[in-house]
Design goal:
The protein has 121 residues and is mainly α. It has five helices and no strands.
Length: 121
Amino acid sequence: MALDNSIKEKIATEVIKTLVSRFDSFPEDASQNRNAPFHKAFLNAFTDKFEDKVSDIPFFISLSSWLQGLNSTLGQTFFENISHHISHGEKREYTSGRLGNLKITQSLRNHISKIVADLST
């Protein structure tokens, strides 16, 4: 599927917005992480694994926290927005409180099971 230039531009804008927000929250000062003492205490059990790989444990902890935030941003905002642009804003609900949950009949379950079994073999 080829994307037209307007969609590519919208995707580029999402990338830029995400990068700017993550640059703004990049951990410059590891002392700001209030949980670092607890993490550091637990990480002491892995000092042999960190040897020659991590020289600044407080920064490593702050960076790990930042990376977890990046993963959340990508999963909760970025990919959803990209999907929205690629689908031209069309979104369908298949299950929800508003529409009611769609029932899967026994014949559909059997058909799904057959497809999965065929894929396995």
